Fold these 3 entries.
Entry 1:
Amino acid sequence: MPGQPGPEPIRLRTLILLRWVAITGQFAAVCGALLIGAEFPLVAVLAVIALALVLNLGLTLRQSRRISAREAAWHLGFDLAQVATLLALTGGLSNPFALLLLVPVTIAATALPVRYLLGLGAGTFVMVTLAGLLAQPLSFKAGGVIQLSEPLLLGHWLAIVIGALFFGAFARRVAAEINATTEALFAARMALEREQKLQHLGGVVAAAAHELGTPLATIKLVSTELADELSEALPQRADLAEDVALLRQSADRCRDIMRSMGSSGRDDLLIRSAPLAEVLAEAAAPHKGRGPEIVIDAAPSMPAIRRDAAIIHGLRNLVQNAVDFAAQQVTIKAGIDQDELWLRISDDGPGYATTLLPRIGSPFLTTRPRSEDGGGYEGMGLGLFIAKTLLEGSGARLGFANGANGGARVTVTWQLDAIRADDRGALGLNPEISR
């Protein structure tokens, strides 16, 4: 769908952990080979392992940042080339650990788009071919305790056992991360469906209030006339006068109820567009009076935009997050730059933690200090995730940062053609009520 964000394929932390396990296994395999008398270029093998070790140490310093599918594919490609090089230096395809060449492409099949899977599949074919053609012979010292056939048999057995454990554990880890993202998307869909049901209810209530207005007015008029006539014709029947008074009171109560319910008519589904300031006010309305002042800075000349449930709910979540952590004020500012419409929601709270910024929008545990007490607030991060998902689904781009003078700042940007609506078009027919 246009504007729909792609899920994070694999967390960088998972790739780093995977490589640590691989490095540990490679060192263990080298030590085991030396113990059984294998002869191979030890310095070159250790240099290849050290290269992966240095890369992983560098990545560990920034393991909390998000990565794209392209970057994840490059990391898996490096692991593939590193394993193929080690195999070429230690016997090629005759090495029982040649099975480990399947790890990168297996993970790619689990979590990456098809184009990256095809690229890694082609890379696996090339690496396996080169490992077979350029393999250095693997020999054993004569007179060793373990003969050639026995270490190969033992090595194949270990490779199968380790490979099964390795594939199972990490496939499970990657699948769990994908399931977490799926569950968060399901929560977003539920929130949107709830908003749409409320809008349907608002339309029905507005129509009912309009249609019942005339009958209620007639009932009140007739009951008033009956009360006057009964007071003249049957002044001794106080019970009838009380019944008529009760009828009038019930009519007045129905009028008041329908009037209050009819105020939700602005949520009628027929209202498909509204001025930008009105949409912002509607999104911020549930959070007014919660403490911090909400200031909306949108010029009257700003264009009308699509009044969509997803947009309103997404903006409402961003405003709620700002109000939760603001000290005194939340500012919603709007503007137009050439062919783009932008909104900036900022607060005067403590802002986002530096380590949190790269992961904002992910449905995982987050921590941000509250402004009033400085204590940590922990949650699943679903509020910002849902807002990001809904707004990006409407074609928006979101940016999260800290302001120059402190506080958090969220910028939402649309192409004007994607968000602007024609507020001069006909609304269409009102829904009919069957009598």
Entry 2:
Amino acid sequence: MDEIPRDQLTGALRRGAVKKHVAAIHVSGKLTLLQRKLSNVLLLNAYDTLISRTRHQIDARTLCLMIGYNSNDIETLKQSLKGLAETVAEWDMLDERGQQEWGVSSLLSYAKLKGGVCEYAYSPALAEKLHDPKVFALINLNIQRRFTSGHALALYENCYRFVRTGSTGWWPLDLFRRLMGVDGSAYYETFKHLNAKIIKPAVAEVNKTSNIILTPETKKTGRAVTDIRFRIRENPQLAILDIDDGEGVRHGPVYARLRALGVSDRLARQWLSAHGEKQVLAKLDYVESRPNVKSMVGYLTAALEGDFQTVADGGGAGEGPAPNGRAEVLRRILEAVKARTPTQRDADRRLFLSQISDRRMREDFEKHGWMSPLNATRITIFWEEMSPGLMEGLQAAE
């Protein structure tokens, strides 16, 4: 496999001893579709602070929304979290010095629900492994939500890690059965049954649903199938759903301008992936044209994540906060938005929209975001509920 150019890598990716995607963390495949989606959302929520924090939190309703789940059924959520704590993650890989390392850990070291908040943690050893993108590929939640089969999502997760190489490499069938969660089943010991009930339906759903296309290949000893691998190529019809890993955007002029302002590599790529170059450029031009801005990065963050509408966007009425008391309300709301993770911000917007039935108000929010004038009162109430005490000392915006 070709080595990735070092000048395109940052941080942990620059370690010269790691020259290929090891992708050796195998999570027990015996997870329900709900548990597998839950696992991915929890990881994405914690990813930026996996190493620096020992505990992570996410609103229970945000969590349920991101996995497309009814938030009123707390018992099922409890059982799903319990299942993750009882699930084993195993790794077998080379360390930075080329020495073989084997390890095992529960997928979650603990989880609890209290006051509408889910708190959880990973073991330190597993957190270190999960944080290295050379080892574990984060799954795009927009793609994940489209899956209806746990086997298909499991296959996608395990294959997507090898998207750069174009092939998973050969997996012994006993390992493949483990990854699909059907090890221990006498029925699936027969390859004919495994192929008809697991492989073919899972491949068909991955190819229809996701941003990659899989082609299975088998290896035989005599007449018996002993190994399987999957050829991987991009799905041009659904590539837009993919997370941009930075290989392309790092060469663009908008990315260069963001970095020159002091925006981190990760944040710059997140903005470009979430908003697109055109919108980021419009907000960047707008912010740089403003006089007496003390923090360009802070103002740009508010403009993008608070969704200020600039003249370039055709929304002059939403240009920055309104004056007087409303300005302070908006400032506090935008600070609360800024403090959220990208996953949580997306969920917040979805949750707020789900509470609006009036078409005109929905359109105004979709256009102006948290600056929406038609939804000002609703937005203030929403964020007071999300962050108790946020508006302390202020009267509610009219």
Entry 3:
Amino acid sequence: MAASAAADLSQIVKAYDVRGVVPDQWDESLAELLGAAFVQVTGADAIVVGHDMRPSSPGLSAAFARGATGRGADVTLIGLCSTDQLYFASGHLGLPGAMFTASHNPAQYNGIKMCRAGAAPVGQDTGLGEIRALVESWIASGAPAPVPTAGSVTERDTLDEYAAHLLSLVDLSTIRPLKVVVDAGNGMGGHTVPTVFAALPIELVPMYFELDGTFPNHEANPLDPKNIVDLQARVRAEGADIGLAFDGDADRCFVVDERGEGVSPSAITALVAARELAKHPGGTVIHNLITSWSVPEVVREHGGAPVRTRVGHSFIKEEMARTGAIFGGEHSAHYYFRDFWNADTGMLAALHVLAALGTHGKPLSDLVAQYDRYAGSGEINSTVADQTARTAAVREAFAAREGITVDTLDGLTVSDTNWWFNLRPSNTEPLLRLNVEARDEATMKAVRDEVLALVRGA
């Protein structure tokens, strides 16, 4: 228990998950305490546990399971899986779950994404704070004695069931043959893609499918442009119809068109929203406040009701539950489905794109053009000493202008009829994050440069 005694849980228990460097910040002894606390806080008599391909993941997940069984809970171990495969298991089996992954973080990191039965998220205000407090009390005064009857451990492979469930949600029966390049980034997409795509009329060109938690080829974070360069080149070289890039735990998916150009996650959100609305007429679609104007426009055009929310999966999932929304999308390539227990799954979004492309008859760039209507800056980070002061300076510079609308739902959003921008502080770093969109490229660049000059004091 030496490492646990020294652990600073304030550094590793984040708003939505546990994440830190192994073994410096946490280790298997702490994972065991977290497993015990998870069972106590959720009141579960059975849970499901899965893990990614990081070197520390098998040991940490096994320790978590020991802690859970020590509190009397039965544990189903599903082994190697993607995060959305763990969510599937939680929903399908009706059990709380824990996924061991640090997503796209470097190899020395690991973490836990926890959920209640039905993939309902466990965050700071929905149990994670209680789990942290319980573990801290045990570190200070000693862990509780095991219950008289320990829980059992069973192993179960859910990959085929996961694939079958996803394929039941999208009609791919009439798609034309497609050549698809997939960059798994040595992450869990290399585990799930072959099974999910096996029955489809697809010529699969795999890139970096070897499971390797040291990420020898590039970071498994497709939102960073440098990490999709290999995929873009391969799509062009192969003459492929589409490229897909998954992050480390394969819950996010980024799309590249036949020219090797990245497709905005906002355009994918709009495309999938239109398809979901065809299945569920009049449904509600959630989008965060830095997705494109095109998203609520497309939702309305297809008879749906758009609902704007803060950035972050806990806010999206809360709004989906509150409104009964059929779908939700974020600029970060997270896609949430009511038919998938309101959880996020990049794989299901990818299947929707393949279904749309496979019945479109023209290239992907033509298909997505109708959903990509405006000029966007992408997210631009600036390191600042005082986030509040810089944000106030930007607000003061714009607020008095005629026709300007200001709101503070999440950071500062300023808009007029031709453009909008959002400036948000990072919760964990001294950064301000800027997103700008306009009706044309020149206007977007002008607004972007003016805001950046104010933020950076240039």
